[in-house]
């Protein structure tokens, strides 16, 4: 047995000991080898395909710390809890952790007692954490961006810290010994070729290996139905729930207010449910998640953040009371059903396309684009007031939405991050073609609208949209509503 075979034998033994599986699923082994070789990577594989262990195992096999940048507290807590149950050296940092626990975790980082540290982009770039991470003595092996689609969907106008992540590696390396290597890997279940390009550019990945699996999941049945009136929409949802008596599910809705009113109506019909949205306290959100996981709630009426990374295998149905704005959001949300591989039904309710009888879907779409346009216009108006070089904290104090404005300028190719905190404008005369930027945003939104009204196999449409044209050629899933209609 040569050294390479011997090394791989140790990797497999460690995998079997910790996770209990006999062998890796393709392409888990290849991804693990890539990260052990300190190579950059983009990994796009479906929900439930075992993404997490692809970065957890290499981190545990190496000396030093791997930083896992994760978007949500629930997602971090879920993964770290499972690792701690296995007695593995992992921990997390977020705003909701008590001060004494936070200090204890930071001490563990300083003493190099951890192999995995989960934290949000905002926590990573907070001064107390950053000062520890740039210490020359602290060995850092890699940066993992978990749920990397959030960089694309949220990085411009919702979570601008994502747009500064590309400066993290180069700044860390300036403070580490000369021979230090820090690999970056981005993991997600949904990223079309355009999104992959954005992730690669923003993170400044160097010749990344790409591992992309088809998003098709044969156990997910897709259906879109027209609800001619608001009352009709309620009744169609109710009929769908009734066909899945006592089975666990999720209802996705696009606003806090509507999640509250819909859950109250369903609760009045004696369904065990609750509304979940960003307006709830952290404790309230954790309680709802736990009740759902323990089957004390049959379903949750939730906004898009719910269910991201939560491992509940037996979700038998997912309903979209309102369609999301982005196709990537839709694919993420339907993917939270059927993680056990068993049949799962997905229903999306839409208004009649002309909007004559019920204009609410069109109004919601127009509002979304109007809000986006407002932020774009605001950023353009502030361009001339922004210094050629500066610090993000100073800009944030001087200007409302300062961080978002810098994030938008970065996404438009007008700004360079010198490090995660300091920027330079690329030209003294910044010009912004707002019409072209708005057109790109509208095209992304139209992709979802076209999916809702397509007559072709829905999975074929999704395969084409996410860059799997070869697999899509002549594809018919045989179990979506359009395929049934053609039978």
Molecular structure report:
There is one protein chain. The chain has 487 residues and is of the alpha/beta class. Helices cover 45% and strands 15% of the residues. It is built from 21 helices and 16 strands. The strands form 3 sheets. A 7-stranded parallel beta sheet has the order 3-4-2-5-6-1-7, with helices on both faces. A 6-stranded parallel beta sheet has the order 8-13-12-9-11-10, sandwiched between helices. It is globular.
Topology:
Layout: H1 3-19, H2 28-36, E1 41-44, H3 51-61, E2 65-69, H4 73-85, E3 90-93, H5 99-110, E4 116-119, H6 121-124, H7 127-133, E5 140-145, H8 149-154, H9 168-174, E6 183-188, H10 193-203, E7 209-212, E8 220-227, H11 230-242, E9 249-252, H12 256-268, E10 273-276, H13 282-293, E11 299-302, E12 317-320, H14 327-334, E13 344-351, H15 360-382, E14 389-391, H16 392-398, H17 402-411, E15 415-417, E16 422-425, H18 434-453, H19 458-465, H20 469-472, H21 481-486
Parallel strand pairs: 1-6, 1-7, 2-4, 2-5, 3-4, 5-6, 8-13, 9-11, 9-12, 10-11, 12-13
Antiparallel strand pairs: 14-16, 15-16
Helix pairs in contact: 2-3, 15-17, 15-18
């Amino acid at each position: 047995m040569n050294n390479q075979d011997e090394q791989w034998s140790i990797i497999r033994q460690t995998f079997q000991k910790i996770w209990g599986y006999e062998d890796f699923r393709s392409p888990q082994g290849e991804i693990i080898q890539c990260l052990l070789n300190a190579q950059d990577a983009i990994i796009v594989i479906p929900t439930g395909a075992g993404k997490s262990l692809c970065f957890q195992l290499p981190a545990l096999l190496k000396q030093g710390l791997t930083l896992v940048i994760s978007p949500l507290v629930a997602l971090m807590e879920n993964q770290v809890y499972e690792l701690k149950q296995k007695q593995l050296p992992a921990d997390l940092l977020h705003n909701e952790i008590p001060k004494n626990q936070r200090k204890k975790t930071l001490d563990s980082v300083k003493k190099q007692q951890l192999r995995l540290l989960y934290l949000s982009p905002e926590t990573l770039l907070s001064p107390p954490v950053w000062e520890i991470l740039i210490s020359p003595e602290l060995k850092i092996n890699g940066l993992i961006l978990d749920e990397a689609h959030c960089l694309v969907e949220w990085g411009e106008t919702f979570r601008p810290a994502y747009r500064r992540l590309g400066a993290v590696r180069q700044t860390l390396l300036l403070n580490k010994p000369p021979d230090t290597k820090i690999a970056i890997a981005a993991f997600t279940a949904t990223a079309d070729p355009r999104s992959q390009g954005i992730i690669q550019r923003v993170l400044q990945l160097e010749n990344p290996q790409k591992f992309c699996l088809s998003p098709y999941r044969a156990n997910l049945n897709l259906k879109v139905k027209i609800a001619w009136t608001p009352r009709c929409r309620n009744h169609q949802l109710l009929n769908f729930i009734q066909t899945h008596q006592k089975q666990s599910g999720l209802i996705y809705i696009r606003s806090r207010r509507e999640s509250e009113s819909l859950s109250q109506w369903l609760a009045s019909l004696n369904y065990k449910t609750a509304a979940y949205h960003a307006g709830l306290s952290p404790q309230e959100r954790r309680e709802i998640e736990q009740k759902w996981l323990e089957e004390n709630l049959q379903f949750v009426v939730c906004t898009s953040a719910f269910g991201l990374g939560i491992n509940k295998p037996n979700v038998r149905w997912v309903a979209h009371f309102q369609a999301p704005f982005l196709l990537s959001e839709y694919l993420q949300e339907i993917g939270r059903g059927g993680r056990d591989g068993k049949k799962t039904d997905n229903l999306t309710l839409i208004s009649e396309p002309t909007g004559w009888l019920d204009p609410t879907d069109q109004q919601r779409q127009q509002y979304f684009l109007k809000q986006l346009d407002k932020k774009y216009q605001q950023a353009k108006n502030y361009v001339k007031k922004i210094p050629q070089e500066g610090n993000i904290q100073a800009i944030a104090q001087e200007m409302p939405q300062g961080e978002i404005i810098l994030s938008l300028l970065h996404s438009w190719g007008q700004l360079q991050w010198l490090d995660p905190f300091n920027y330079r404008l690329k030209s003294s005369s910044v010009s912004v073609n707002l019409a072209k930027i708005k057109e790109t945003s509208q095209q992304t939104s139209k992709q979802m609208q076209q999916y809702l009204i397509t007559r072709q196999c829905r999975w074929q449409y999704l395969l084409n949209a996410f860059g799997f044209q070869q697999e899509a050629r002549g594809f018919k899933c045989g179990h979506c509503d359009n395929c049934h209609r053609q039978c």
